[in-house]
TrEMBL record:
SUPFAM superfamilies named in the record: DPP6 N-terminal domain-like
Region described as Disordered: spans on this chain: 912-939
PANTHER family found in the cross-reference section: ELONGATOR COMPLEX PROTEIN 1 (PTHR12747:SF0)
Species this protein is from: Lichtheimia corymbifera JMRC:FSU:9682
Gene3D superfamilies given in the database record: YVTN repeat-like/Quinoprotein amine dehydrogenase (2.130.10.10)
Domain ELP1 first N-terminal beta-propeller: 1-363
Protein name: Elongator complex protein 1
Domain ELP1 three-helical bundle stretches: 830-1004
GO cellular component terms listed in the entry, alphabetical order: cytosol; elongator holoenzyme complex
Amino acid sequence: MRSLQLLAQTSARIAGINPRSRAFIANNPEDNTTFVAFEDSTSSNIRVLLNGIAPDDALAFVELARVPIVDQQFKGKAIVGFTYLADQQVACLAARNGDIMLFSKERFDNGEEALEIVGSVDTGIEAMAWSPDQDLVVLVTGHRNVLEMTQDFDTITEFPLHVEEQGEGVQHSVGWGRKETQFHGSAGKQAALNKVDTSKFTLSEDDDHNARIAWRGDGSFFVVSDIDQQKSARVARIYNREGILQNTSEPVDRLEHVLDWRPSGNLIVSSQRLPHRHDIVFLERNGLRHGEFTLREKTNHKLLEVSWNADSTMLAVWLEAENAAGKRQKTVQLWTANNYYWYMKQHLVFANDEDIVGFQWDVESPLCAHIATSGCQYHKYNYATNVIASTSVEEDNAGYVAVIDGEFKISDNEPSAHDETYRRVERGARIVLATQLKPNLVLQMPRGNLETVSPRAFVLARIREDVKALDYRPAFIACRRNRIDLNILYDEDPELFFENIPKFIEQVPEVDHLNLFLSNLKNEDTTKTLYQRLGKSDDSSSEVSGKVNKICKAFRDVLMDLGRDQYIQSILSTYVKSTPPDLESALQLLADIKQTSVSKAEEALAYTIFLCDADSLYNVALGMYNFSLVLMVAQQAQKDPREYLPFLQELQKLEKFYQRFRIDDYLKRYASALRNLTRAGDEHFDELLNYMRKHTLYKVALEEYANNPEKKNVILNAYAEHLADTSAYDESAIVYQLCNEMEKALNSYRLAGSWREAFAMANQLQHSEDDIQGLAYDLMEYLKDKSRFDEAAIVAVDYAKDVEEAVDCLLRGSHWQEAIRVSHTQNRSDLIETHVKPGLFDGYSQMDEDLNDMSSQFHKQKDRLKELREKKPEPTAVLPHDESLDNIDMFSDTTSMFSQFTRYTSASSRMSTLSSVSSKASRKSSRVRRREQRKKERGKKGTIYEEEYLVKSIKKLCEKATTMQNDVRSLLSVLVPFGYMDEARNIQEKFAQILVEFKEAIPTVFVPLQLPLGKYATQEEIDAAKEPVSIEKPTMQDIDWKLQILS
């Protein structure tokens, strides 16, 4: 019964939002300030703005910093995540190119640079999400690895996203709630054995192919959704806080990219696009499907994002669909649930086809939303719930309470949702008479006086009759008197009206009346919106494309024939009312009138200024390069002469095309300004180059000078320098070649590390051997810094002619056999003794040391684990809460209302009598949680976390040993031929013993953790013991790595 009402709204302007890309919003709940990050619409930059710092306007947004988008392929999608970090008091932004940036208001206030780049991921970033306590951040890299880091950006773990394993949670399933144990009706138990055929699964056509991350409200789990190429479907994988895979979602055909985890923890939300409908689907933490609801939209739409509010009561669905006008528009729907039924409480649609390009719930106020629109506006909406009940007496004497779910329900046999045959009148009033010729009704009030009213139904019926009879004057007067939209005169019968426009002007000749009619025109059919006939249903769009322009042109043609001077105001109205306004034609008409009568032109101009913005009219006149017209507009608009006269006087002194350049630059028509500057003469070429660089107009300049090779080469040179400055060295080298700057092209290839192209260019330029060797050493250093040792060796041999350096590079990269091959093929067998053998012995020494360390660590941790598990636990003084109660399905998802302080409890359906333990855990301070996490990571001896730490450490040793088999084989195959038999045998026997010990220990080490609680266990230890961790056994794959000669 509770409906959503808007309590308050605040708005501010954000200049430069790109309507084709998303704006990201992050709010600071401490001082109610808001960060906004977006891509600029006029340049390739990421801009970050903040409000609340301007002294004169707290709502105004001030730019903190802007970051260039170097790689243009990321334009429109350069930002992947944006979050405010309360502890550090900074906003964190992750860019798709891999950069992680922090923006600080404090540094900005101190006059320092607000931007700080704290690190970069070489392979790029596809998604970012901070944990609710902001102690951890999870990234999905460009190579589809999941990277988990601390708040100081120290790496905790990194692992591949797409794996065959289903997760640890699968091992502990006892069948409750599974398909095999459910009732299948007449199909019988055989239905449980049917496997889902995933080979026919496809991706949704609306999937954006990007990864998504979402955390559970208590920060103990997170989910990652991405397209698994092997399965050709999108899969959601659930991990615990340590990054260990717990569960994988059940196969869902056409599962889409949207993703969020309900803060209360019981549901993960996504969407599924089916051929006949579009569902919002829910998954449980174990990955199983748990209900859905269907969106109202059927076709021609796609989902952008979904988002839960802070207390899990409201779900925002951000989508793009066709509006009533047939245009695609981005809007937001607000849904809530009660007793498993979903109600759409609000549908946020902005006027003028504005898109919602940014949406974010407030982190603390559950019913507060932050919105950014394509119209460069920021809105903050504060909602409240209210019961809306009827207050009037109807014919059926019923009491109504509005329950909003986004649909208006009526009986199927009703002709209309609204009954026009009933109208309310004042209590005690009596109907005396309904007149026949006029749409009037006479009422006698309780006081005895008579009143005449014009019911809307009477008026509309009369207007329709007059329009049909071509009596336009009485219809027009009735509309004007009763405030009926004048569009009905056309919309009632468009073809009839269009054919009789001369008759309409004949019957309504007053200029003011014609101006009123023209100014009220809009591209909408009012017979489908405001004045739909009773019982008449029409599903077609109410948007009428081109209606206003069509009527304006027809009126203008007729009025020009009747007399331009007589109807000049109405003719100007047709120009101004056109979509878009044709102000240039209107000003051209005024210029023509001025030739015959200055006074009439000034009078008409005053009327035009009344219709539209004077500054816009002034700029249009200036853009026509007509100074007399500009002066007339400025004078009629009563602009201060001190503002415009000096500027106009300065312009009049300039040469024609340079004058136009200055005008276009003033009007920010930069491309047109550059074209005029090219026509201003060669003496302005240097200025043209600077202007081109300032506004990045290299392509426009190249078009203008396409037939001038000399100047074209200068522009290409400048363009290449620009590319080099933005680190696009490969492309810079290509452009340098176009302008025959081969040396600069060579340098760009060198900076890019493109050694093949660089040496080809050097040979083409006929560089000396010394120069080529110097280039080779530069490129070798670059390749070694990038750990590309095999390529560095090729450069050393082929171009530096330095075989020793090549062998060193190969030895550093552990390419033993290649180092031997190069030594012999280059006739440097002496390097075998001086470089290869010492390098091999160093490799043996390092391997021997690593194996000793592994063995020592393994035995110490294994013995400690055995001691820990054999120790008898003390009696438990505190009975921990049973977490299995959290998953009882008999409770409704909306059984009780939650405040913003209980949104991070582990399950929304927990009984109130059992909620005390979880509420204590949810109120833990951030400092306590960080302390417990550090304890867990250290695994200090004697703590509850020690067993888990030891098991994880042994698992890492097993995984490391598996990957070392190829390395050991490679080393052994080189040690033996050089006579290091004892050393090779030592390595083989030691490593074989380690593998045997590791495999024998796996069954005893990797068992469910016991987590014994002491008598005086802390609350944190009790909470940790509620969900004992089960660590997956490592898989040690055997390969043929031994040498038989050493056995």
